[in-house]
Amino acid sequence: MFDKLETLDDLFELQLKDLYSAENQLVKAMPKMAEKARDGRLRAGFEKHLRETEKQVERLERIGKSLNLDLDGHTCKAMAGLIAEGQETMSERATDEVMDAALIAAAQRIEHYEISGYGTAAHYAERLGHNEAANLLRQTLEEEQFTDTKLNELAKNYINAKAM
C-alpha cells in the first residue's frame, strides 16, 4: 500500500481504508448476529445497525471519491479478529439468554473499535482541512456511540439479569 507513511495525509488514507474494510466485513457478519439473537429488541437493534452500516460504507465511498482515493485492497485485521471471536462465541452451546448477553459483549467490542477509528479519522480530516470528510466521519462516530449506548442499556436493563 505505502512504502512508507510519510505524512498525516498518508495516515489518514490508511485509516479510511481500514474503516472501509471493517465496515464491509460487518455488513457480511451482522446478519448472522441478528439471526442468532433471541431477544426481539436485540435482533431489531442489529438489523437497524446493519442498515446504518450500509450507509456508513456509502459515506466512506463518498469521502474516497471526493479525495480521489481508492479505498479497496486493504483488509482490517483487527475487525477480522473481532468478527472471528464473535463467530466462535456464536458457535458455543448456550442458553438463549446467555447467548444474547454474549452477542452484546461481542458487538460492544466492535463498536468500541469503530468509535476509536472514527474519532481518530475525523480528527485527521479536520486537521487536514477536509471539512466535508470530517463532518461525515463525525456523523458515523455519533451513530456508533449511539449504538454502543443502546447495547449497554439492553445489557444493563434486562438481558444480563435474564442470563443469570
TrEMBL record:
User: Which keywords fit this entry according to its UniProt record?
Assistant: Coiled coil
Keyword flag Coiled coil: yes
Which residues lie in coiled coils?
43-70
Q: By its UniProt entry, which InterPro entries does this protein fall under? A: DUF892_YciF-like (IPR010287), Ferritin-like (IPR012347), Ferritin-like_SF (IPR009078), YciF (IPR047114)
Give yes or no: UniProt keyword DNA-binding. no
Sorted alphabetically, which SUPFAM superfamilies does this protein's record hold?
A: Ferritin-like (SSF47240)
Q: Name the source's superkingdom.
A: Bacteria
Protein name, entry field: Uncharacterized protein
Its ancestry begins with:
Bacteria, Pseudomonadati, Bacteroidota, Cytophagia, Cytophagales
